[in-house]
Amino acid sequence: MAIPTSDSAAPAFSASPATPLTDEARATALWTFIQAQAPHFTLAGALDVIRALHIGSREDRRELAKRLRKELQARRIKLKQVNALQAVARLTGYSSWHSDASKETPRLRFEVFIQPPRLQTEEFASWSQLADTLRTWADKLLARGQLPLGVLTMRFTGQMLSFTVPVPTMGDEGNPPRNEIWLLGSVVPISDEDHNWLAGAPAALEKLRRHLEETGKAVLDGYAALYLCANSHDRPGNVNEVTAADVVNSELVLLREADEDDPHSGFEIARGDELTCWHQLEVSLRDDHAETKPEAVNVSIPDEGTGAWFVNGVRHVWALETLKPNEYLPGRVHRQLGIDDCERLLRRYKLARRIHSGGFRHHDMTKHVDYLSGLPETWRVDLHRILHLLQKANLTWEGYIEKFGAEQLLMTATLPVGFVMQLLENLQVEKPNAVFAWPTLAEMSLVTDDQLICSLMPRVDAVRYATSGDLSPQVAASLREAVDEFSSGLHLQKMVSTGAITMERELPYLVYANDAQELRLSAEAMGLQVYIAVSPHLIPTAGMLPETPDVKVWPWAFGHALLLRFDHARGGAQ
């Protein structure tokens, strides 16, 4: 049963509308409703609007009305919100938007972990209904002292929003204190098919943000990426379209840009959510003798600005970066924030500065994104290598299946992940990563700047490289040294971010980001150009994990490798 709140004046739709309508019927209803106001609006135009809306069976009425107004405005038709609600009611089979008030269908489940350890759940028909409950819950967290560092973090993973909090703990003997991450609650869609479940989330979470930040209680970390994704104003179907659902693969990027007329003068200061970027901004300003004091950070946005912060007189630009998953290489949408969004971030930074008067005591080294965070269903393999391994074991493909009782599969270049893992274990393969197929050159991306490598570095675990094979011994040795240095920097970043290595003084993120530029420049100095892609990578776990006789554990951990291919630059030696 949904819990009514003061935000539920416009009820959500029922999962079973009074009269299920086809797109054509909805277009006719919309055209009839709009035509008197806008005679130029045609039935064909109405059908285009309906198809662009992709109306789901569990839509929130207010959010659908907003989207309808946006689509109509693009066609030079202005509609008031109350009229948009009436139009939306007709699109879903009701004569009025008041008709379905008693038939709200739950769409969201709010799960809270309470003491003694147990899960408490409530269901809601819309984010607008959930908004008040979120604020009440946050007040209880504060009253119980469950936000000790003044941070409530939102993490978006798949079809889940989780709320976590950093909690300081005493370090083990010989180790410094650290922060543990505790899960306090989550919001999930009730239906796995509700792919538009985040519609309405930005408005509800903005109320939570204001409730926490404007009153000086805590920072709602992770909200900026959701807000920016939901307000990207893309046309549906655009190859670079970013929506609220893309928040799972999006993060803020902060760059210092010494010369705004030269885009190549910029270099990365930070990437991640708000607190990480603000913290790294201040670390980047730190001298060798003292931490950066709040009064030493002077941030402003000039009246004639085009969307940038001027920090101690130096221009810094903000961007939202979104990765679009693909087999070997993600699509990358990188958009600089405009002045309104920069001003919104600056206001929040100043509020956070007051809440965290002693400096930002918690930040993530690497923001979680869904891209490269889970196992796919299949892997592409090198069939020649597979045949070599079978031949070494005196087996054919059919013989292997018969001997080990494996799944009956055709020998193709794309195989289920579980099948490949079992094959590697059955054949006791010492170098498992050799079985993964290298992408063709057309499937890789030529590196012309450092941005895509910087996007991938926090998400990969190793580096593998190949060359054209006709390099001189001197160039080959220099290239090996450059790649080894880049790989060592990546390994150090991983060890520090996971807490495996503690450093007396934190290194700014820009130190790691600069590694990509150094690799590219080293290759250019050798007359080489670099192509990149991403591949699965298996990490041996022998001696790292406790052995449990009753539980099967794979001998490898799953990760990813950054693939580098170096070829002669055009016009260079062949």
Provide an overview of this structure:
- This protein has helices at about 25-35, 45-55, 60-75, 80-90, 125-145, 200-215, 225-230, 275-285, 340-355, 385-390, 395-405, 415-425, 450-455, 475-495, 510-525, and strands at about 110-115, 120-125, 150-155, 160-170, 180-190, 220, 250-255, 265-270, 300, 310, 315-325, 330-335, 380, 415, 445, 460-465, 530-540, 555-570.
- With about 575 residues, the protein is α+β, with helices and mostly antiparallel strands.
- The protein folds into 5 domains: about 1-100, no CATH class; about 110-220, no CATH class; about 235-355, no CATH class; about 380-435; about 440-570, no CATH class.
- β10 and β11 form a beta hairpin.
- α1 runs antiparallel to α4 (about 80-90), α3 (about 60-75) packs across α4 and α5 (about 125-145) packs parallel to α6 (about 200-215).
- Residues about 1-20 have low confidence and may be disordered.
- Mean pLDDT, to the nearest integer, reads 84
Give the strand order, joined by hyphens, for the main sheet: 2-1-5-4-3-6
Number of distinct beta strands:
18
- Determine the number of helices (DSSP H or I, runs of at least 4 residues): 15
* Strand residue percentage: 15-25%
Structural class by helix and strand composition = alpha+beta
* End-to-end gap: 71 Å
Main β sheet profile: 6 strands, mixed
Shape: globular
Number of separate structural domains: 5
**Percent helix among the residues?**
25-40%
Q: Using only CA atoms, what is the Rg?
A: 27 Å
